[in-house]
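Example record for the data management plan.
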Amino acid sequence: MFNTKSKIEEPVTISPSFQLPIILIILSFMLLFLNIGYWPTIVFAAFSFFLLLQSFTLRIKITNEDFVVLQLGKEIRTFPFKNWISWKFFFPIIPGIFYFREKSSPHLLPILFNPEQLKKELIKKVESLEIKPPLK
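Corresponding structural encoding:
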């Protein structure tokens, strides 16, 4: 199920990436040129700034057994790898969304973290659970 041959390693904190919120902020202000009113721009920009704030305050820590979400250094949620069924990156170049499914529920997270570093660490821990694109 998950990589049991990995030796005990120090927890890795994934570095933040501000790419997604900044792209969304730029796109939100471009809505002004579409003449659809100010409210869509205000709502979209507010969401974009919320994501920017989250990228400053949230961190992901990956231990040998858990995927841990930290806010301002305080642990707010732990997802044990033993409960994972699958995981996948959607639109990783943009960056987009990180999906993972536990036995109890699915989770979608905007990629507010370094996607390459996150994927590298997940491959070390739970590579066999990655949903890969079908072969052509």
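Summary line stored alongside the record: Helices lie at 19-30, 38-57, 115-126.
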